[in-house]
Amino acid sequence: MPPTQPNGNANVNFFADYNNLALIAIAVVSGGLLAWPAIMRSTSGKSVNTAGATQLINKRNAVAIDVRDAAEFAKGHMPQAKSAPLADLPNRAGSLAKDKSAPVIVISQTGQSLGKAQAALKEAGYSEVYALEGGMTAWQQAGLPVVK
Fold first, then answer.
1. Helix (H) or strand (E) holding 66
2. Any bridge partners for residue 132, and if so which?
3. Of 66, 78, 119, 137, which sits with the fewest C-beta atoms within 10 Å of its C-beta?
4. CB neighbour list of residue 60: distance below 8 Å, 6 or more residues apart
5. CA angle at residue 71 from 109 to 56, to 5 degrees?
């Protein structure tokens, strides 16, 4: 038998207690914040980790497009990567790869904020555009080749 309140009412109205409402609000907000990265990933486009990128390059002749500025590109980039700074990408997107059905991997320093780059390449007619998860930082940490 459930415990009774002093007035003898066994039914406790959980949602009427302001302390419980605050806890419910905190749970909903924290759940939303935890889900936010997954939601943004699914709306911004496809992504690929370093192993997947290597397979795309080796097996399907994927084109690597580095959207970092020229100075960052010169410090080190993936072998055969094409430099197309994010600001210039919309103007250069059409001429970066001969075959627009080939996979394209977009690279930044940390893999963040590549939605604009992916959108520009899709708009230019590329059918399969991936963002490199973790960017050049992850590529270097995986011990993969870097050209300077």
1. strand 63-66
2. 48
3. 137
4. 102, 103
5. 45
- CATH number, span 45-141: 3.40.250.10
pLDDT at 105 over 70: yes
Read out DSSP for 81-124?
Answer: PEE--TTTHHHHGGGS-S-TTS-EEEE-SSS-S-HHHHHHHHHT
Closest CA to 73 of 109, 106, 97: 109
Continuous segment of H or E residues that includes residue 138: helix 135-141
Q: What is residue 135's three-state secondary structure?
A: helix
Q: Which two tokens stand for residue 37?
A: 């990265």
Would you say residue 36 has pLDDT above 90?
Answer: no
In the chain, % helix, strand, coil (3-state, to 5) comes to 45, 15, 40
- Residue 26 token pair: 């905190």
Are the C-beta atoms of 136 and 78 separated by less than 8 Å?
A: yes
The position carrying tokens 């780059």 is: 117
Q: In the numeric block, which tokens belong to residue 139?
A: 């590529």
pLDDT in the model for residue 4? 53
Contact 110, 137 (CB under 8 A): yes
